[in-house]
Specification:
The chain has 372 residues and is an alpha+beta fold. The chain has two domains: 250 residues, Aminopeptidase (3-Layer(aba) Sandwich); 90 residues, Peptidase M42, domain 2 (Elongation Factor Tu (Ef-tu), domain 3, Beta Barrel), CATH 2.40.30.40. 29% of the residues lie in helices and 25% in strands. It is built from eleven helices and 17 strands. The strands form three sheets. It has an eight-stranded mixed sheet with strand order 1-2-12-3-13-16-14-15, with helices on both faces. Strands 4-5-8-7-6-9 form a six-stranded antiparallel β-barrel. It has a three-stranded antiparallel sheet with strand order 10-11-17. A hairpin with a 3-residue loop joins strand 10 and strand 11. Helix 2 runs antiparallel to helix 6. The longest helix has 19 residues.
Length: 372
Protein backbone atom coordinates (compact mmCIF):
# COMPACT_ATOMS: atom_id res chain seq x y z
CA UNK A 1 0.00 0.00 0.00
CA UNK A 2 1.26 3.47 -0.87
CA UNK A 3 1.59 5.52 2.31
CA UNK A 4 0.86 9.22 2.32
CA UNK A 5 3.35 11.63 3.75
CA UNK A 6 2.60 13.29 7.08
CA UNK A 7 2.03 16.53 5.21
CA UNK A 8 -0.56 14.89 2.95
CA UNK A 9 -2.29 13.21 5.89
CA UNK A 10 -2.52 16.44 7.88
CA UNK A 11 -3.93 18.28 4.85
CA UNK A 12 -7.03 16.07 4.85
CA UNK A 13 -9.62 16.69 7.50
CA UNK A 14 -11.21 13.47 8.77
CA UNK A 15 -14.95 13.79 9.31
CA UNK A 16 -16.37 10.26 9.47
CA UNK A 17 -15.96 8.75 12.94
CA UNK A 18 -15.64 5.10 13.95
CA UNK A 19 -19.22 5.19 15.25
CA UNK A 20 -20.66 6.77 12.13
CA UNK A 21 -18.75 4.35 9.90
CA UNK A 22 -20.35 1.44 11.79
CA UNK A 23 -23.76 2.91 10.95
CA UNK A 24 -22.72 3.40 7.31
CA UNK A 25 -21.76 -0.27 6.98
CA UNK A 26 -25.03 -1.43 8.53
CA UNK A 27 -26.99 0.98 6.34
CA UNK A 28 -25.32 -0.21 3.12
CA UNK A 29 -25.75 -3.89 3.95
CA UNK A 30 -29.48 -3.42 4.53
CA UNK A 31 -31.49 -3.72 1.28
CA UNK A 32 -33.72 -0.80 0.27
CA UNK A 33 -35.05 -1.53 -3.23
CA UNK A 34 -37.13 1.05 -5.06
CA UNK A 35 -40.66 1.01 -3.68
CA UNK A 36 -39.61 -1.05 -0.63
CA UNK A 37 -37.24 1.34 1.13
CA UNK A 38 -38.81 1.29 4.60
CA UNK A 39 -36.27 -0.88 6.46
CA UNK A 40 -33.41 1.33 5.32
CA UNK A 41 -35.41 4.44 6.14
CA UNK A 42 -35.98 3.19 9.69
CA UNK A 43 -32.25 2.68 10.15
CA UNK A 44 -31.50 6.13 8.74
CA UNK A 45 -34.08 7.93 10.88
CA UNK A 46 -32.93 6.13 14.03
CA UNK A 47 -29.40 7.40 13.36
CA UNK A 48 -30.56 10.93 12.50
CA UNK A 49 -33.07 11.54 15.31
CA UNK A 50 -30.57 12.69 17.98
CA UNK A 51 -29.39 15.46 15.65
CA UNK A 52 -32.72 16.99 14.55
CA UNK A 53 -35.77 18.54 16.21
CA UNK A 54 -38.50 16.73 14.31
CA UNK A 55 -38.94 13.90 11.82
CA UNK A 56 -41.48 13.22 9.10
CA UNK A 57 -42.22 10.31 6.74
CA UNK A 58 -44.48 10.77 3.73
CA UNK A 59 -46.95 8.28 2.24
CA UNK A 60 -44.35 6.62 0.03
CA UNK A 61 -41.51 6.46 2.55
CA UNK A 62 -39.40 9.57 2.00
CA UNK A 63 -37.86 10.37 5.39
CA UNK A 64 -37.11 13.88 6.65
CA UNK A 65 -35.28 15.23 9.69
CA UNK A 66 -35.92 18.89 10.47
CA UNK A 67 -33.84 21.42 12.39
CA UNK A 68 -35.83 24.55 13.35
CA UNK A 69 -39.16 23.25 11.99
CA UNK A 70 -41.03 26.50 12.71
CA UNK A 71 -38.79 28.67 10.55
CA UNK A 72 -40.39 30.12 7.41
CA UNK A 73 -37.22 30.07 5.27
CA UNK A 74 -36.43 26.45 4.38
CA UNK A 75 -33.19 24.90 3.14
CA UNK A 76 -33.13 21.29 1.95
CA UNK A 77 -30.12 18.99 1.82
CA UNK A 78 -31.14 15.83 0.01
CA UNK A 79 -30.11 12.38 -1.19
CA UNK A 80 -32.07 9.37 -2.38
CA UNK A 81 -32.48 6.13 -0.45
CA UNK A 82 -33.51 3.54 -3.04
CA UNK A 83 -31.32 0.98 -4.75
CA UNK A 84 -31.75 -0.84 -8.04
CA UNK A 85 -33.33 -4.29 -7.89
CA UNK A 86 -35.41 -6.79 -9.84
CA UNK A 87 -39.05 -7.87 -9.94
CA UNK A 88 -40.15 -11.48 -10.42
CA UNK A 89 -41.94 -11.49 -13.79
CA UNK A 90 -42.45 -15.15 -14.75
CA UNK A 91 -42.06 -18.55 -13.05
CA UNK A 92 -41.52 -21.59 -15.27
CA UNK A 93 -43.14 -24.97 -14.64
CA UNK A 94 -39.61 -26.23 -13.81
CA UNK A 95 -39.30 -23.68 -10.97
CA UNK A 96 -36.95 -21.18 -12.61
CA UNK A 97 -37.67 -17.46 -12.31
CA UNK A 98 -37.39 -14.70 -14.92
CA UNK A 99 -37.18 -11.07 -13.87
CA UNK A 100 -37.61 -7.49 -15.04
CA UNK A 101 -35.79 -4.38 -13.83
CA UNK A 102 -36.83 -2.23 -10.91
CA UNK A 103 -34.67 0.78 -11.74
CA UNK A 104 -31.53 0.62 -13.85
CA UNK A 105 -30.31 -2.87 -12.97
CA UNK A 106 -27.48 -4.13 -15.19
CA UNK A 107 -28.30 -7.48 -16.78
CA UNK A 108 -24.70 -8.06 -17.85
CA UNK A 109 -23.43 -8.47 -14.29
CA UNK A 110 -26.24 -10.77 -13.17
CA UNK A 111 -24.97 -14.30 -14.02
CA UNK A 112 -23.56 -16.12 -10.95
CA UNK A 113 -24.68 -13.41 -8.52
CA UNK A 114 -26.32 -14.40 -5.25
CA UNK A 115 -29.61 -12.69 -4.48
CA UNK A 116 -32.25 -12.27 -1.79
CA UNK A 117 -35.90 -12.65 -2.75
CA UNK A 118 -38.04 -10.58 -0.40
CA UNK A 119 -41.29 -12.43 0.37
CA UNK A 120 -43.96 -11.86 2.97
CA UNK A 121 -42.76 -15.10 4.57
CA UNK A 122 -39.18 -13.85 4.91
CA UNK A 123 -36.03 -13.90 2.79
CA UNK A 124 -35.49 -16.62 0.20
CA UNK A 125 -31.99 -17.18 -1.17
CA UNK A 126 -31.37 -17.70 -4.88
CA UNK A 127 -28.73 -17.31 -7.59
CA UNK A 128 -28.68 -16.00 -11.12
CA UNK A 129 -27.84 -19.16 -13.05
CA UNK A 130 -25.81 -19.35 -16.27
CA UNK A 131 -24.80 -22.27 -18.53
CA UNK A 132 -21.33 -23.65 -17.78
CA UNK A 133 -18.54 -22.72 -20.17
CA UNK A 134 -18.18 -26.40 -21.15
CA UNK A 135 -21.72 -26.48 -22.50
CA UNK A 136 -21.17 -23.37 -24.60
CA UNK A 137 -18.01 -24.61 -26.31
CA UNK A 138 -18.01 -24.43 -30.11
CA UNK A 139 -21.25 -22.52 -30.28
CA UNK A 140 -22.01 -18.84 -30.76
CA UNK A 141 -21.81 -17.23 -27.35
CA UNK A 142 -25.00 -15.70 -26.03
CA UNK A 143 -24.55 -12.58 -23.95
CA UNK A 144 -26.61 -11.97 -20.82
CA UNK A 145 -29.87 -10.16 -21.56
CA UNK A 146 -33.25 -9.70 -19.94
CA UNK A 147 -34.48 -12.51 -22.20
CA UNK A 148 -32.10 -15.16 -20.87
CA UNK A 149 -31.01 -14.37 -17.30
CA UNK A 150 -32.93 -16.35 -14.70
CA UNK A 151 -33.04 -17.13 -10.99
CA UNK A 152 -32.68 -20.57 -9.44
CA UNK A 153 -33.87 -20.90 -5.84
CA UNK A 154 -33.41 -24.67 -5.67
CA UNK A 155 -36.99 -25.56 -6.56
CA UNK A 156 -38.15 -28.04 -9.20
CA UNK A 157 -41.64 -26.76 -9.92
CA UNK A 158 -43.70 -23.59 -10.11
CA UNK A 159 -45.79 -24.81 -7.20
CA UNK A 160 -42.72 -25.25 -5.01
CA UNK A 161 -41.56 -21.71 -5.81
CA UNK A 162 -44.96 -20.26 -5.00
CA UNK A 163 -45.11 -22.22 -1.73
CA UNK A 164 -42.06 -20.20 -0.62
CA UNK A 165 -44.10 -17.00 -1.00
CA UNK A 166 -42.57 -15.99 -4.34
CA UNK A 167 -44.99 -14.52 -6.88
CA UNK A 168 -44.98 -12.11 -9.81
CA UNK A 169 -44.01 -8.72 -8.41
CA UNK A 170 -41.81 -10.05 -5.60
CA UNK A 171 -38.68 -7.90 -5.34
CA UNK A 172 -35.12 -9.25 -5.60
CA UNK A 173 -31.85 -7.65 -4.44
CA UNK A 174 -28.21 -8.67 -4.72
CA UNK A 175 -26.43 -10.19 -1.74
CA UNK A 176 -23.15 -8.30 -1.32
CA UNK A 177 -21.65 -6.65 1.73
CA UNK A 178 -19.77 -3.45 2.50
CA UNK A 179 -15.98 -3.53 2.72
CA UNK A 180 -12.98 -1.19 2.88
CA UNK A 181 -10.46 -1.65 0.07
CA UNK A 182 -6.77 -0.77 0.58
CA UNK A 183 -7.74 1.55 3.45
CA UNK A 184 -8.77 3.98 0.74
CA UNK A 185 -12.12 3.03 -0.77
CA UNK A 186 -15.52 2.06 0.57
CA UNK A 187 -16.96 -0.73 -1.59
CA UNK A 188 -20.49 -2.13 -1.72
CA UNK A 189 -23.80 -2.27 -3.52
CA UNK A 190 -26.18 0.69 -3.27
CA UNK A 191 -23.52 3.30 -2.53
CA UNK A 192 -25.67 4.95 -5.22
CA UNK A 193 -27.03 6.64 -3.30
CA UNK A 194 -27.18 5.60 0.32
CA UNK A 195 -23.73 7.15 0.55
CA UNK A 196 -25.62 10.40 0.00
CA UNK A 197 -28.06 9.62 2.79
CA UNK A 198 -25.13 8.90 5.07
CA UNK A 199 -23.37 12.15 4.17
CA UNK A 200 -26.36 14.42 4.79
CA UNK A 201 -26.95 12.67 8.13
CA UNK A 202 -23.32 13.43 9.00
CA UNK A 203 -23.94 17.10 8.24
CA UNK A 204 -26.76 17.08 10.80
CA UNK A 205 -24.48 15.31 13.29
CA UNK A 206 -21.76 17.92 12.89
CA UNK A 207 -24.22 20.80 13.30
CA UNK A 208 -25.47 19.28 16.55
CA UNK A 209 -22.08 18.32 17.97
CA UNK A 210 -20.57 21.70 17.09
CA UNK A 211 -23.61 23.46 18.60
CA UNK A 212 -24.31 25.48 15.47
CA UNK A 213 -27.48 27.58 15.38
CA UNK A 214 -29.12 28.11 12.00
CA UNK A 215 -31.26 31.15 11.11
CA UNK A 216 -33.56 28.99 8.94
CA UNK A 217 -35.20 25.59 8.88
CA UNK A 218 -32.93 22.81 7.63
CA UNK A 219 -34.67 19.80 6.07
CA UNK A 220 -32.48 16.70 5.82
CA UNK A 221 -34.29 14.66 3.18
CA UNK A 222 -33.78 11.02 2.16
CA UNK A 223 -36.06 10.52 -0.85
CA UNK A 224 -37.47 7.32 -2.32
CA UNK A 225 -37.94 6.25 -5.95
CA UNK A 226 -35.17 8.27 -7.57
CA UNK A 227 -34.07 5.28 -9.63
CA UNK A 228 -37.37 5.19 -11.52
CA UNK A 229 -37.79 8.90 -12.26
CA UNK A 230 -37.12 11.21 -9.27
CA UNK A 231 -40.61 10.49 -7.94
CA UNK A 232 -39.90 10.77 -4.22
CA UNK A 233 -38.18 14.12 -4.67
CA UNK A 234 -41.13 15.42 -6.70
CA UNK A 235 -43.54 14.54 -3.90
CA UNK A 236 -41.48 15.86 -1.00
CA UNK A 237 -40.54 19.10 -2.80
CA UNK A 238 -44.24 19.84 -3.18
CA UNK A 239 -44.80 19.11 0.51
CA UNK A 240 -41.87 21.09 1.97
CA UNK A 241 -41.90 23.98 -0.53
CA UNK A 242 -38.25 24.84 0.14
CA UNK A 243 -36.50 28.11 -0.64
CA UNK A 244 -33.17 26.39 -1.44
CA UNK A 245 -32.17 22.80 -2.22
CA UNK A 246 -28.70 21.23 -2.19
CA UNK A 247 -28.77 17.70 -3.59
CA UNK A 248 -26.01 15.10 -3.34
CA UNK A 249 -25.76 12.03 -5.54
CA UNK A 250 -23.04 10.01 -7.22
CA UNK A 251 -21.36 10.54 -10.58
CA UNK A 252 -18.98 8.47 -12.66
CA UNK A 253 -15.27 8.18 -11.99
CA UNK A 254 -13.98 8.08 -15.58
CA UNK A 255 -10.46 6.80 -14.98
CA UNK A 256 -11.10 3.09 -15.59
CA UNK A 257 -11.05 1.31 -18.99
CA UNK A 258 -13.86 1.60 -21.57
CA UNK A 259 -15.04 5.05 -20.47
CA UNK A 260 -14.70 7.95 -22.91
CA UNK A 261 -13.57 11.13 -21.16
CA UNK A 262 -14.57 13.21 -24.18
CA UNK A 263 -18.22 12.34 -23.61
CA UNK A 264 -18.25 11.50 -19.89
CA UNK A 265 -15.82 14.12 -18.57
CA UNK A 266 -12.53 13.75 -16.70
CA UNK A 267 -13.46 12.90 -13.09
CA UNK A 268 -11.60 10.86 -10.51
CA UNK A 269 -12.19 9.32 -7.13
CA UNK A 270 -10.00 11.00 -4.51
CA UNK A 271 -9.95 14.42 -6.16
CA UNK A 272 -12.93 15.85 -4.31
CA UNK A 273 -16.64 16.55 -4.69
CA UNK A 274 -17.99 17.31 -8.16
CA UNK A 275 -19.85 20.58 -8.74
CA UNK A 276 -22.27 20.42 -11.66
CA UNK A 277 -23.22 22.89 -14.37
CA UNK A 278 -26.66 22.27 -15.85
CA UNK A 279 -29.86 24.17 -16.63
CA UNK A 280 -31.40 22.98 -13.35
CA UNK A 281 -28.42 24.21 -11.31
CA UNK A 282 -29.03 27.78 -10.15
CA UNK A 283 -25.99 29.84 -11.07
CA UNK A 284 -25.61 31.93 -7.91
CA UNK A 285 -26.13 29.00 -5.57
CA UNK A 286 -23.49 27.12 -7.56
CA UNK A 287 -21.11 30.06 -7.23
CA UNK A 288 -21.66 29.94 -3.48
CA UNK A 289 -20.66 26.26 -3.39
CA UNK A 290 -17.46 27.01 -5.27
CA UNK A 291 -16.66 30.01 -3.09
CA UNK A 292 -17.15 27.92 0.06
CA UNK A 293 -14.93 25.14 -1.31
CA UNK A 294 -12.16 27.61 -2.12
CA UNK A 295 -12.45 29.39 1.21
CA UNK A 296 -12.18 26.14 3.20
CA UNK A 297 -9.57 24.47 0.97
CA UNK A 298 -11.94 21.71 -0.07
CA UNK A 299 -10.80 20.15 -3.35
CA UNK A 300 -13.49 19.97 -6.01
CA UNK A 301 -14.06 18.97 -9.62
CA UNK A 302 -16.45 20.26 -12.28
CA UNK A 303 -18.98 18.48 -14.48
CA UNK A 304 -21.36 19.68 -17.20
CA UNK A 305 -24.75 18.19 -18.09
CA UNK A 306 -26.29 19.30 -21.37
CA UNK A 307 -30.03 19.04 -20.63
CA UNK A 308 -30.68 17.60 -17.18
CA UNK A 309 -28.62 16.22 -14.30
CA UNK A 310 -30.57 12.97 -14.04
CA UNK A 311 -30.70 13.46 -10.27
CA UNK A 312 -33.23 14.76 -7.75
CA UNK A 313 -31.79 18.23 -8.43
CA UNK A 314 -34.08 18.40 -11.46
CA UNK A 315 -37.16 17.58 -9.38
CA UNK A 316 -36.44 20.25 -6.76
CA UNK A 317 -35.36 22.91 -9.26
CA UNK A 318 -38.54 22.73 -11.31
CA UNK A 319 -40.95 22.48 -8.39
CA UNK A 320 -43.02 25.20 -6.72
CA UNK A 321 -42.43 27.77 -9.43
CA UNK A 322 -38.67 27.22 -9.36
CA UNK A 323 -36.42 26.47 -6.37
CA UNK A 324 -32.72 27.52 -6.44
CA UNK A 325 -31.01 24.13 -6.51
CA UNK A 326 -27.47 22.81 -6.84
CA UNK A 327 -25.82 19.40 -7.08
CA UNK A 328 -22.75 18.11 -5.24
CA UNK A 329 -21.73 14.72 -6.61
CA UNK A 330 -19.56 11.97 -5.18
CA UNK A 331 -17.25 10.28 -7.73
CA UNK A 332 -17.98 6.55 -7.92
CA UNK A 333 -16.57 3.62 -9.86
CA UNK A 334 -18.68 0.77 -11.31
CA UNK A 335 -22.12 2.35 -10.86
CA UNK A 336 -25.11 -0.02 -10.68
CA UNK A 337 -22.92 -3.01 -9.90
CA UNK A 338 -22.38 -4.83 -6.61
CA UNK A 339 -18.87 -3.40 -6.23
CA UNK A 340 -19.46 0.34 -6.38
CA UNK A 341 -16.39 2.19 -5.07
CA UNK A 342 -16.05 5.61 -3.45
CA UNK A 343 -12.98 7.29 -1.95
CA UNK A 344 -12.95 7.88 1.80
CA UNK A 345 -11.58 11.40 1.41
CA UNK A 346 -14.29 12.33 -1.10
CA UNK A 347 -16.93 11.29 1.43
CA UNK A 348 -15.33 13.52 4.07
CA UNK A 349 -15.08 16.42 1.64
CA UNK A 350 -18.66 16.21 0.40
CA UNK A 351 -19.78 16.33 4.04
CA UNK A 352 -17.52 19.31 4.70
CA UNK A 353 -18.73 21.19 1.59
CA UNK A 354 -22.42 20.76 2.44
CA UNK A 355 -21.80 21.60 6.11
CA UNK A 356 -19.84 24.78 5.39
CA UNK A 357 -22.32 25.87 2.71
CA UNK A 358 -25.25 25.44 5.09
CA UNK A 359 -23.42 27.64 7.61
CA UNK A 360 -22.85 30.26 4.91
CA UNK A 361 -26.45 30.61 3.70
CA UNK A 362 -28.17 33.65 5.16
CA UNK A 363 -31.76 33.90 6.38
CA UNK A 364 -34.05 34.87 3.48
CA UNK A 365 -31.10 34.79 1.06
CA UNK A 366 -32.15 35.64 -2.51
CA UNK A 367 -30.23 33.75 -5.17
CA UNK A 368 -31.86 35.37 -8.19
CA UNK A 369 -29.48 36.60 -10.89
CA UNK A 370 -31.34 39.90 -10.98
CA UNK A 371 -34.53 41.27 -9.43
CA UNK A 372 -36.74 44.35 -9.60
Amino acid sequence: MVKKSNKEESAHQRVVTTESLAFFEKYINNPSPTGFEWEGQRLWLDYLKPYVDKTYIDNYGTAVGIINPDAKYKVVIEAHADEISWFVNYITKEGLIYVIRNGGSDHQIAPSKRVNIHTDNGMVKAVFGWPAIHTRSGEKEEVPSLKNIFLDCGCTSQEEVEALGIHVGTVVTYEDEFMVLNDRYYVGRALDNRAGGFMIAEVARLLKENKKKLPFGLYVVNSVQEEIGLRGAEMIADYIKPNVAIVTDVTHDTQTPMINKITQGDLACGKGPVVSYAPAVQINLNRLLISVAQQHNIPFQRQASSRFTGTDTDAFAYSNGGVPSALISLPLRYMHTTVEMIHKEDVDNVIRLIYETVLTIQKDQDFRTFSN
